[in-house]
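quick one before i forget lol
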Amino acid sequence: MPAVRRRLGPEERRQQLVQLGVDIIKERPFDRLLVDEVIAAAHISKGLLFHYFPSKRDYQVAVVRAAADELVSLLQPDPSLPVLDQLRHGIDAYISYIEGNPASYNAIVRGAGSDEALLALFEDTRDEIVQLITGEITPDPSPLLRLALRGWIASVEESSFLWLRDHPCSREALIELLFQAALQLLPLVADAADVE
């Protein structure tokens, strides 16, 4: 007996289409996300896909946004842990994500090119990560702290890319390097604030 297909509501269908795209960019580069493949996997017409997303680019942006949301959700701190343990766990979760989803990570961090929507998404994702960290340090982060953390996150991203590509050290050594870099940064921010 053939499986009975259930008709999805508009939001369920949209979420299904985005999730199919997220699953694809976990396996291969973002620029190889083929709309026809998503349409076939969802058993829909091209017209239905473009009913939910006005253009291929809109669909791609929705997919990368969902992948970025997935990454940020994995970085949520555990308030039952001391702050430094939260930081170490966050770094570990970040590295776990890029290990398991290298193509998706590349789309989030380097897939923007000159596309304004993807650049805005990239900036939003970095800001969300900064907010996760500062929220555990202070309810009212200074512009200097935000600036320093944005720089640290850029360093984490670049170090993670190189580590993923070349594996110059163990996973544990990478986590320790990134953790120690953050620990060195915080007193420098405090000292710089005294100079302002």
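fyi The first helix runs from residue 10 to 27.
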